[in-house]
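Input structure tokens:
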């Protein structure tokens, strides 16, 4: 189970106060791990660094917002406070924040560009789509039967015919949901925009890798290898397969071998789409 604390933060722009849910425990068990570094797990809820102030609606960074106090979950439940909860930054807002260049450091630019990259890749995450349809299937199984009979009665047709009709309707609805999430970002998430985002992210990660490598004087710790994995993945998604394979050659740690092999195989088969480990 994930437990939370509730810090009260102060907006660095308007000084308004807001509360943010922050997980204090969590893990990635039963998680899905993707080649672009995105993790989806029931007990994994990493803290959002970019926030939208509920008072002045400006983008602010959590690290730059002063912490006033921290409620435990219990204290928060018993407290009568009119302090607003902070809003999660939506997919479309990440694109908006990027276009407004809201970062103050390379680290923040990397954070934002990575979220934009992940958001775009969400449209192609196969496991997520399957997971969604499994959930839908359970819900549909219960409601379909009732709906089928209702439809048959109201349209004066056979139950079997109604079943086909209803299944088609669900297919249309599921497709519409997918289209809606694409429509939400379609005006900004053009292929040109995404390539430009990945190229700039690549540049930033290469600089970061060089910086860390110099700092650790060749004695590479796990973090630089994780960076290398991300760099290789961006090369692959950009279709620069040889650069991808060459980058993976620099990975030395055993713990990254499986992931490197999967990314290498995808590159060797000319696959540019996000995959899973
Ligand atoms: Zn504010």
């Amino acid at each position: 189970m994930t437990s939370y604390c509730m810090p009260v933060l102060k907006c660095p722009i308007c000084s308004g106060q807001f509360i943010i849910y922050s997980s204090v425990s969590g893990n990635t068990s039963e998680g899905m791990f993707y080649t672009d570094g995105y993790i989806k797990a029931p007990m994994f809820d990493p803290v959002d660094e970019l926030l939208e102030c509920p008072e002045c609606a400006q983008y602010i960074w959590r690290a730059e917002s002063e912490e006033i106090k921290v409620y435990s979950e219990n204290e928060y439940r018993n407290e009568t406070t009119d302090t607003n909860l902070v809003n999660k930054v939506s997919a479309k807002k990440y694109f908006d924040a990027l276009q407004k260049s809201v970062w103050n450091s390379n680290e923040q630019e990397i954070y934002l560009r990575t979220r934009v990259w992940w958001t775009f890749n969400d449209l192609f995450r196969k496991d997520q789509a399957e997971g969604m349809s499994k959930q839908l299937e359970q819900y549909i199984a219960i409601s379909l039967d009732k709906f089928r009979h209702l439809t048959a009665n109201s349209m004066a047709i056979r139950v079997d015919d109604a079943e086909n009709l209803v299944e088609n309707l669900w297919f249309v609805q599921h497709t519409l949901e997918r289209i809606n999430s694409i429509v939400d970002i379609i005006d900004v998430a053009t292929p040109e925009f995404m390539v430009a985002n990945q190229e700039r992210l690549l540049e930033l990660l290469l600089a970061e890798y060089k910086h860390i490598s110099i700092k650790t004087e060749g004695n590479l710790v796990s973090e630089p290898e994780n960076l290398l994995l991300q760099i290789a993945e961006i090369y692959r998604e950009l279709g620069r397969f040889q650069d991808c394979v060459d980058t993976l050659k620099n990975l030395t740690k055993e713990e990254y071998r499986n992931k490197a092999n999967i990314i290498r195989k995808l590159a060797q088969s000319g696959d540019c789409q996000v995959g899973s480990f």
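The longest strand covers residues 4-10. Residues 151 and 157 are 8 Å apart (CA to CA).
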